[in-house]
Write a structure and sequence with these properties.
With 453 residues, the chain is of the alpha/beta class. It has 14 helices and 14 strands. The protein has one domain: TIM Barrel, CATH 3.20.20. Helix 3 links the parallel strand 1 and strand 2. Helix 3 packs parallel to helix 14. The protein binds phosphoenolpyruvate and cobalt (II) ion. Phosphoenolpyruvate binds next to loops.
Amino acid sequence: MSSWQPYSFRERPVEQAIRYPDAAALEAAVSRLRAMPPIVTSWEIERLRAQLAEAEEGHRFVLQGGDCAETFADCRSDVIASKLKILLQMSLVLVHGAQRPIVRIGRFAGQYAKPRSQPSETRVIDGREQTLPNYFGDLVNRADFTEPARIPDPALLVEGYMHAALTMNFVRSLAASGFADVHRAHQWDLSFASGAQLADDVAREYRRTMKELLDAIRFMEAIGESRLEEISRVELFASHEGLHLEYEAAQTRTVPRREGHYCLTTHFPWIGERTRRLDGAHVELFRGVRNPIGVKLGPSATADEVLALSRTLNPQDERGKLVFITRMGHGAVATRLPPLLRAMRDAERRCLWICDPMHGNGTTTSTGRKTRDFGAILGELEESIDAHAREGTVFGGVHFELTGEDVTECIGGADGLREEDLDTAYATACDPRLNYRQALEMAFAITRRLRAG
Ligand code: PEP
Ligand code: CO
């Protein structure tokens, strides 16, 4: 294989490439990014790798979640805090199901670039069809449906970096200040006080789980259990799709006293389903960094592709290095997933398998709204749990698009959200997310399934 450098990706075909009209402005933005301090550190990245290595062995369970697309407008304290709350709450529920410590990874602090199936978008404005370049996320262009808004703007790269830094700063402060201490679990959901937000049985189940958990923690405190600090101190890692390679490469560096390069925009970048071709630019950039790397695998992924990706992205077969995020779609898991699991298992190659039950389950309503059905999402998870059990591989975690807000984007769940309800609070900048109640309900459903064995 040819030698790797932070910019060797420029020699490779770039899927989802962004064409900037002003090359000098792009270079100016990228050189500013190169001079800025990193968003995360190599220490944190190595720590995440160590935890993912344990997850591979079945000793930890990953919860990864957040918006499909973060927006600069949502870089606000209430939105970020409620996202953390739902992740923390879900993780506590999942401890019960998985009976393992949870590795919490947010889709935040940089989830600003979106791959699109279509390069352009057509809308009917005042009775006339108008076609404009698609919206590729706040890092690239603006969502407004006007021509100037849709022109890729390099200044957004620097703005994106700054919003990512602001978000990470707030996440770190909350985590360090005791907000994320499990002793305060009862404060993570203020809506319980009013009692009106969750379906009764979900609220009851949550309170019971919290009580059992806090009782267990108090018991361990009483007997001086040494791992307690780890259990009650909650860590949060950041992740995003490593789509915009100029943004990622500008923060890909060596650091003092460590070998190799780190991509310091995030702890855990992943390569999307649309950009995972073996000879492509995305695989090229990320094969050279020490971070753990995720790769989305959709229903077209073959065993040969998966083995080739593992040899390229993890040539030394290191622990905690490669995460395959499968997103086959409800109904497709039983035929699509087992050949991939068997290929890696039989080749004795290491990876962590987690399931994204969102991206294979998108549908469009008769009025043109993108949605996902709670039952299909849960169905894909259950089929994946079964497939791993049959193949003797580790079902290592889950990946969701969710929000702590009270949106109406996915149908189903205990509230029985229907297509007709979607207009009430449809707010996503991209794909439909589980709302607060659906997300918590999902965590309970997984827990029941995992406990049933
Ligand atoms: C995403 O995670 O938002 C995404 C676009 O996923 P995928 O690459 O799996 O389609
Ligand atoms: Co998405």
